[in-house]
Design brief:
Blueprint: E1 3-4, H1 8-13, E2 28-29, E3 47-50, E4 56-62, E5 68-73, E6 81-86, E7 92-98, E8 102-107, E9 113-117, E10 121-127, E11 130-136, H2 138-145, E12 148-152, E13 155-159, E14 167-174, E15 179-187, H3 189-197, H4 204-217, H5 221-228, E16 243-246, E17 250-255, E18 260-265, E19 269-275, H6 282-285, E20 287-293, E21 300-306, E22 309-315, E23 322-331, E24 334-339, E25 342-347, E26 357-362
Antiparallel strand pairs: 1-2, 3-26, 4-5, 5-6, 6-7, 8-9, 9-10, 10-11, 12-13, 13-14, 14-15, 16-17, 17-18, 18-19, 20-21, 21-22, 22-23, 24-25, 25-26
Amino acid sequence: MYMKTTPFSSLKKNRKRALSDTIWLKMVLNDLTLKDIEVVARTERPDTVFGTQEYSVEDFEFDKNGNLVLLTYEKNIQSGSVLKLIGTDNKVLDNFFVEGTALDLQTDFRNNIHLVTEDQVYLVMIQSQQFDVYLEERDYYFRYVAPVIDTIGENIYFSNYSDLYPAFDYYEFDRKDSVYNCLMKIQDDLMMELYRSEFKYVDARTKIWAHQKQIETGIDKEIWVGATVFTNSVYYQPLYAPLFKIGSDSILIFDHYADQLFLYRPDFGKIDSTEINYHKDARQSGWEQPLIQDEVNGKIYALFERGGYSYLHEIDLTDGSIKQSFKLYYKYTERIKIKNGKVFYIYRPFESIQKKYIYSEKLSS
């Protein structure tokens, strides 16, 4: 489509006849067929997966049959909570009253659900649409179950991560041959330097205590001071370099301190790596932890927070770059999970009497 206009010289001659605030243009439109242009505006509101004014949802998981396992409370989580099993028709199938202050729900490498409280850990089993809840030994869970990330065949993948130390290792354990293999060492060099140097600045009594601990345990005195003093300072940040299983035979390790994404396969070892930089300048970009993996298709998303809104960027696993972002509809969402191309989260409108509901949105392709 184009137009013809009266020459400006002609307008200038007839300027006196025109109104002081009007310019008259004579336009001739030629007949031209335009192609259709599809314009999509994202105005749809998220779907409400579950919500009631009787109680709020603190955390949630899906069982193998698509039912929801909810950690709920009426007024606040410290006053008591209830574990609820919600069927696919949103009806309550069973309840389990939780003793103590509940923290969250965790799913282990076998897809078993665990309820973690301040003092206890419970294994949550579902039989015939009812809860079977068993008390677990807390130390055993955090030492032997929680560190295990995933398995490939006979191989188990785990770490010796501690939030009190700025380095850890990833291991592969072959159950068939009972052989351990250290896959990778993760360390924040700058944080480690600050961590160990804290020993120089503590008082004499703390130094004597650290020396005694070194004699008793064999653990370096600088580590004792770093773990008890430096980790409580504003300068310390626990490491975050997650491992994910991709497909049936591959492992990805996101080393945010070496700025590298590593690909590992049990039969070949470390076979490839690529640079990553989405995590840099987090204060400016709004990058947040954790990375989130789609529980069904295996895609991995980086989370960014800007102006209260959450943005999900799919990570290209071939070159480490991030793709077009998906902005969640609501501000200040909680407990974000992704499953089969849908993002699920908990949200309550600000200064509203509404309880905390679970919502879902379909991720744009």
